[in-house]
Task: inverse folding
């Protein structure tokens, strides 16, 4: 458990003392929380609400980037389907973030999962790698279609915007789901 020292509910209507390393034998029957516990829970709830708000704003921004790319891919339905799938992924990520708030899990558990070096590295690989692949494939399709310069820079700009948006959505979805799953398991063990 990663929490400050204090009394916490053990799930049996008892307050058990956590000394910042392990559970001790100190138990209170009183169901009223210790003032320090109440203060830390209030602070965690405020941080958690702010984090969920920022997560929703980030998700909406990523969804707007993905939507802005749809006109550039009007002749490529498979990519449009990918953009729509990204929007569903973004909704799923936000639902998970909101569910974390409903489970009353401390905000640091969610933040920790979304800022690990693995998830940040994965996001950059998705964004940069996806952009490079899409640029090459888009260039080949652009030349092969025989439309010459009719689209101008629209296709390249659309590819850049789409992969920035989709990369951001995937970067939110993966860590969001893994952290939700881990936090639920950790919460289950914490209450035992």
Result:
């Amino acid at each position: 458990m990663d929490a400050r020292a204090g009394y916490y509910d053990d799930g049996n209507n008892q307050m058990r003392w956590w000394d910042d390393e392990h559970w001790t034998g100190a138990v209170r029957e009183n169901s009223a929380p210790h003032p320090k516990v109440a203060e830390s829970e209030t602070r965690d709830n405020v941080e958690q609400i702010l984090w969920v708000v920022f997560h929703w704003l980030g998700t909406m921004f990523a969804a707007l980037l993905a939507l802005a790319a749809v006109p550039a891919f009007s002749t490529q339905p498979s990519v449009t389907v990918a953009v729509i799938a990204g929007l569903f992924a973004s909704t799923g990520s936000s639902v998970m973030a909101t569910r974390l708030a409903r489970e009353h899990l401390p905000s640091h558990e969610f933040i920790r999962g979304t800022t690990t070096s693995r998830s940040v590295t994965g996001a950059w690989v998705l964004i940069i790698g996806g952009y490079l692949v899409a640029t090459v494939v888009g260039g080949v399709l652009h030349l092969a279609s025989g439309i010459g310069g009719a689209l101008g820079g629209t296709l390249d700009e659309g590819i850049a915007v789409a992969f920035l948006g989709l990369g951001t959505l995937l970067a939110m979805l993966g860590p969001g789901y893994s952290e939700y799953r881990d936090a639920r398991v950790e919460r289950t063990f914490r209450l035992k």
Summary: The two ends are 12 Å apart (CA to CA). Residues 40-190 form one domain. Helices lie at 35-69, 77-102, 107-114, 117-144, 154-190.
